[in-house]
Each structure stands twice: as C-alpha cells, then as structure tokens.
Amino acid sequence: MDKIALEGMEFFAYHGFYEEEQKIGNKYGVDLEVETDFGAAAQGDTLNDTVNYESLYKITKEVMEEPVKLLEHIAGKIIAKVLDTHASAQTVQVVVRKYNPPIGGVCYASKITMERKRDAV
C-alpha cells in the first residue's frame, strides 16, 4: 500500500475541555497520513487517480475551525471526512497536538494518534 502525508499543519483554534480554552484559543498541530494505491496515478499522471493533498488540507482546516472539547473528536472527524471524500483511501492516521496544554506545569504539547481502516469504520 502507498502513502500520502501532510506533516506539520498548524492551526489556531478554540478547542478544549475548559471554557477558558474555548475563549482564548491555542495553537494546534496536525499530521495526516493516508494509505491508498498510487498505481493508476503513477501510470496515468492524473490528479483524479490519487488522493489530492490539497483536499486533505481543506478537510483538516474545516474540522479545525469547528470548536470541540477533545483532540480525539478532532481526529475522528478528520478520519471520517477523509474516508467519505476519498474512496481510494484505505487507512487514515491522524496525529493532533495541542501546544502548551493547560496542565499546571511545563509541557511542550499533548498529543493523540488515531488510525482507522476503511473496513473498521
């Protein structure tokens, strides 16, 4: 299986469990990896034969613009939209980071990783 990825996408968003997080916002990072088959694109050189990374960015951006409480919910929504939008996507992995999370101490980032296969969704 072949893979396409967007690494290090950055967003300022208003996610968080605490009301204050939803008001002041925070910086987030997202990595997205999709397993698919590049066979047709490698032969035909046609964008319609692959997973367009511009589309992946648009999906991620749209999800990041909708405030939610949990990083897991963000990842789940991205995965669902990628699988709904790209029929050739077989597996989607999303990493979501919240920089400087409110934990009462020094922490560069909190991070979750979620992966789902098309047949398991």
UniProtKB/TrEMBL annotation:
Does this UniProt record's set of keywords contain Lyase?
yes
Q: What is its EC number?
A: 4.1.2.25
Residues in coiled coil? none
Q: Which UniProt keywords apply?
A: Folate biosynthesis, Lyase
Q: Where is the Dihydroneopterin aldolase/epimerase domain?
A: 4-116
Q: In which pathway does it act?
A: Cofactor biosynthesis; tetrahydrofolate biosynthesis; 2-amino-4-hydroxy-6-hydroxymethyl-7,8-dihydropteridine diphosphate from 7,8-dihydroneopterin triphosphate: step 3/4
| Catalytic activity of the protein | 7,8-dihydroneopterin = 6-hydroxymethyl-7,8-dihydropterin + glycolaldehyde
Q: Has the keyword Lyase been applied to this entry? A: yes
Which SMART domains is this protein grouped with? FolB
One Pfam family this sequence matches: FolB
The free-text function statement in the UniProt record for this protein reads:
Catalyzes the conversion of 7,8-dihydroneopterin to 6-hydroxymethyl-7,8-dihydropterin.
Family, according to the entry, reads as follows:
Belongs to the DHNA family.
Q: What is this protein called?
A: 7,8-dihydroneopterin aldolase
Tell me the classification of the organism that encodes this protein.
Bacteria, Pseudomonadati, Bacteroidota, Cytophagia, Cytophagales
